[in-house]
Amino acid sequence: MRQGGVMPGELKPAAFLDRDGVLNRDNGFVWRREDFQWLPGAQSAVKRINDADYLAIVITNQAGVARGLYGEADVSNLHRWMNDELGRDGAHIDAFYYCPHHPSEGQGAYRLVCDCRKPAPGMLLRAMREWPVDRPPSFMIGDKEIDVEAASAAGIKGLRFDGGDLDALVRSALGDRS
User: Which residue positions in the chain have pLDDT lower than 50?
Assistant: First the structure.
């Protein structure tokens, strides 16, 4: 059995979620849990995705790594903490994908044009290779046009989150499956 309860050969739809501005308040470079603030409806939205038997996968640009503000270990630690918090309500994120690069503000090896930084679809495509994603019902929710562009380039529906209650948007995206 694979992570997330997916059996070999079984396809599952996925809900891809941007992190900053969708799951948490985008206060600039968020990498410490004391700076992390869940947005209204975010935790219940993840639970709804889990209950609908969708994979829940976070896709996030993390240019703070490229700028030297924090390291990749800090990003991983925050993501583990997020899953611990979600677990209190019986919810979880199946996988986290992040891009640590920036084409002009990056330092050292992190300063590059890559295929993973949104609006490029690299993170989505990698997740679809590593997880058995059923593309037609899958979708991406992001707070910026680059999220919608990345979704379109990866061949899935992109939804723009303009604030408010994330759970309501997820409920609508799932239709009768919620």
Answer: 1-3, 178
